Amino acid sequence: MSFQQINQEDNQRPDGKACIMVAGYDPIAFNNIKTYAASMNIDEVIEVKKDQMNNTLRQLIDHTGNVSIKAIEPAMPAIVLNAVSSAELNKFVQHFKTLKLPKCLFAMVTPTSINWKFHDLVKDLLEERAMFQKMHAEKANPNK
């Protein structure tokens, strides 16, 4: 994965359908996220169920994916935003904690990740999180 600095002043939405995909939350939390997204003018919130984790992000966005016999439990709740501006992403993530929901993984759909299976994206995000936690721990305790 590659990282780039978020321009918090960028209010221009990229082309595409503004939506978010949510996995790993119970129905009450999911409804809270839907209400929160609507308050930010993100009208579509797609619940990614366990039997849809093998679908690509594009299939989920376009509602063209299939359900799988093999259900995959997300290792951690995840929220993936599509076609929102950098400023909206920053605001969404910063104010998400006011919902008092369990922590989750956040991602933006990119030209590369749109073709990834949802569960592969979650797996990659978990690996990145572990790498950053290790780097942070090493920086905090350089003699260990």
Briefly say what this structure is:
The protein is α/β, with parallel strands linked by helices and 144 residues long.
Structure description:
It is a single chain. The protein is of the alpha/beta class and 144 residues long. Helix content is 37%, strand content 12%. It has a 4-stranded mixed beta sheet, with helices on both faces. The radius of gyration is 16 Å and the shape is globular. The chain starts with 18 loop residues before the first strand and ends with a helix.
Task: List its salient traits.
144 residues; four-stranded mixed β-sheet; 4 strands; 37% helix; 12% strand
Number of helices: 4
Q: Overall pLDDT, averaged?
A: 88
Strand content: 5-15%
The number of E-state strands comes to 4
- Helix and strand element order: EHEHEHEH
Helix content: 25-40%
